[in-house]
Amino acid sequence: MSSYMPTLKQLQYLVALKEQGHFGKAADACFVTQSTLSAGIRELESLVGITLVERTRRVVRFTALGDRIVEKAHRVLREAEELAAIAQASGKPLCGELRMSVIPTIAPFLLPRLLPRLRTDKPELKLYLREETSHAAVESLRHGHVDCVLLALPYATGEVESELLMSDALFVAFPKDDPRDPPAAIAPEMIDESRLLLLEDGHCLKDHALAACNRPELRAEATMMGTSLHTLVQMVENGLGLTMLPEMAIQGGILNNTHIVARPLKSEHARRDIALVWRKNSPRGEEFRMLADILRDAASVPRKQAKERTPEPA
Q1: Matching CATH number, 8-87, of 1.10.10.10, 1.20.1290.10, 1.25.40.10, 3.30.470.20
Q2: Peptide bond into 154 cis (omega under 30)
Q3: What is the pLDDT along the chain (314 residues), one digit of tens a residue?
Q4: Dihedral, CA atoms, 8, 13, 17, 23, nearest 10 degrees?
Q5: What are 272's strand-pairing partners?
Q6: Kind and range of the H or E element at 32?
Q7: Beta-strand pair 96-102/148-153
Q8: Strand pairing of 260-264 and 160-175?
Q9: Over the Cα atoms of the chain, what is R_g?
Q10: Candidate CATH numbers 3.40.50.1220, 3.30.460.10, 3.40.190.290, 3.30.420.10; the one for domain 101-301
């Protein structure tokens, strides 16, 4: 075996450069100076005897071999992290560092319930959170940047393991004085496609909402401009149209102090499934199942409270 093997640090620098496309940004992502990162990549190139990155003043361009090594480096780094995770998993569960991505249509509504619970029940757990769109979160999981993802399904995740936490119903939200306000639920055919406001591409909630309606013309006509659910609510509040919101956002108070009404969407698939997902065969699988139990319990609290406040029918 050759004694001149790439180090994990060199591979980390190369992967960061590929992801950032800029030496300065890559160095910041690795918490080193730009000269340190550049020297590390040059050492790697000297080691393999081939140029991996073409450097110009404006562009960082990877060679074909450079791209192949980056792809392999992702796997090596992920395996190295899982090697460390095996040792950690053999000790006390849910302690030490845990990196989790959460999509923006879940994070503001579930995390305020979860984090105090984790601080109380698992004080030795250091939870590092990243808020990312579904696509970015799945990529972070695949490349080993995070250990697990709090996601809404269905979504194309590749080979993962998962634990279902809750079912989250979809509601149609519109101005309070809308003359078409029905007394109960709203059927998909009642939605005016010219007034429908949805999240921009990259957010799985948009696809869940359109799939629940099962109206192809909605995908073509709906205005997809919202960067967040809070932005959509403000647009509806200002009379620009109507939108769809998940039940957890409504329970989380997103419509408080607004003049917006929300009615359930009357459709067979008018919901999304909230799940915790992680890489298949991860050595920390049992820990993630324990975390899912805590998440599931935290998610059920507002529902229980709402049920307790509901008066019994006369």
Answers
A1: 1.10.10.10
A2: yes
A3: 455 688 889 998 998 898 888 898 889 888 899 999 999 999 998 888 888 998 877 788 899 888 889 888 888 887 777 776 665 655 677 878 889 999 999 999 999 988 898 888 888 888 999 999 999 999 899 888 899 999 999 999 988 999 999 999 999 999 887 766 677 888 888 888 888 898 887 788 888 888 888 877 776 666 667 789 999 999 999 988 899 999 999 999 999 999 999 999 998 889 999 999 999 888 888 889 999 999 998 887 654 444 444 433 33
A4: -170
A5: 168
A6: none
A7: parallel
A8: antiparallel
A9: 23
A10: 3.40.190.290
Q: What residues does CATH 1.10.10.10 cover in the chain?
A: 8-87
- Domain(s) labelled CATH 3.40.190.290 in the chain stretch across 101-301
Tokens 């579904």 locate to: 134
Q: How many residues does the chain have?
A: 314
